[in-house]
Amino acid sequence: MVNQQRKRSEDTQRQLLNRLSYIRGHVEAVRKMIGDGAYCPDVILQNLAIVKALKRVNELILAQHLRTCARKAMRGKDAKAQVRVEKEIIDIVRNSC
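RE: above sequence
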């Protein structure tokens, strides 16, 4: 994995931060549920909602990456950059299943 820093659009950045704030609140609510001895299936359903929200965050990040960094690399003439981007996307797909 290459540690590169890219500027996201302000809209994407705002969406991601809002979603992550929501997820943080949701995790805290689940933590309270567990502390209060909530019914196990209720806790699991809330955890599944958190996982779904995290998947959506990853979808937004990937969409932005494909529209910007990946597109630029694939259109460029740097074969190493193209191979790197291909491997990154394959790794993402492999780890998402």
